[in-house]
């Protein structure tokens, strides 16, 4: 199994302290010890198996589509910052987004940047506990009753109307 060796600031301080301690007592050993440590860390970092470009290109990212007020559509992949495009039709928009996604991933991969994995909606249960003033609760309940819908359904419709 491959792993990334990263020297944290605390570890760096501890290595420096150990090196100084060894250097005071045995300078030749301290230099050999430090060179050996750096060689081991470099070897470990070279053993890291970075996933292939193909792996990242085959990941399925959630897509968000918006109707453009001037016509057509805008699409984005929120997991890949700045990865968005537009098109006149859904088909054109999705084709453009696929090209933008591939270019985004290829550019990040070649630059050695971190490529985020796709997010999932597993963290959203669809349930929300909400505290509100009794007077607001009463007004919402009375209005939902007049509309002939449940309080939950009425609140969801209000939230949907303002979240567009």
Give a brief outline of the structure.
With 164 residues, this protein is mostly helical. The chain is built from 6 helices and 3 strands.
- Structural class from helices and strands? mainly alpha
* Total strands: 3
* Shape designation: elongated
Beta-strand proportion: 5-15%
From the N-terminal CA to the C-terminal CA, the straight-line distance is 46 Å
Identify the notable features of this structure and list them briefly.
3-stranded antiparallel beta sheet; mainly alpha; 164 residues
Molecular structure report:
With 164 residues, the protein is mainly alpha-helical. The chain is built from six helices and three strands, in the order αααβββααα. Strands 1-2-3 form a three-stranded antiparallel sheet, covered by helices on one side. The longest helix is centred in the middle third of the chain and has 22 residues. The two termini are 46 Å apart. The model has no long low-confidence stretch (mean pLDDT 86).
């Amino acid at each position: 199994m491959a792993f990334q060796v990263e020297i944290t600031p605390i570890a760096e301080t501890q290595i420096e302290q150990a090196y100084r301690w060894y250097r005071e007592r045995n300078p030749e050993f301290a230099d050999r010890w430090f060179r050996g440590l750096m060689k081991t860390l470099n070897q470990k970092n070279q053993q890291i198996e970075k996933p292939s470009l193909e792996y990242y290109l085959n990941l399925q990212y959630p897509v968000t589509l918006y109707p453009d007020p001037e016509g057509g559509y805008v699409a984005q992949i929120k997991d890949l910052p700045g990865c968005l495009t537009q098109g006149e039709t859904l088909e054109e928009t999705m084709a453009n987004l696929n090209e933008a996604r591939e270019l985004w991933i290829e550019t990040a991969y070649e630059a050695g940047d971190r490529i985020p994995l796709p997010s999932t909606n597993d963290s959203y249960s669809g349930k929300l506990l909400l505290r509100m003033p009794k007077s607001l609760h009463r007004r919402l309940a009375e209005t939902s009753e007049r509309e002939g819908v449940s309080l939950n359904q009425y609140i969801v419709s209000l939230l949907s109307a303002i979240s567009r």
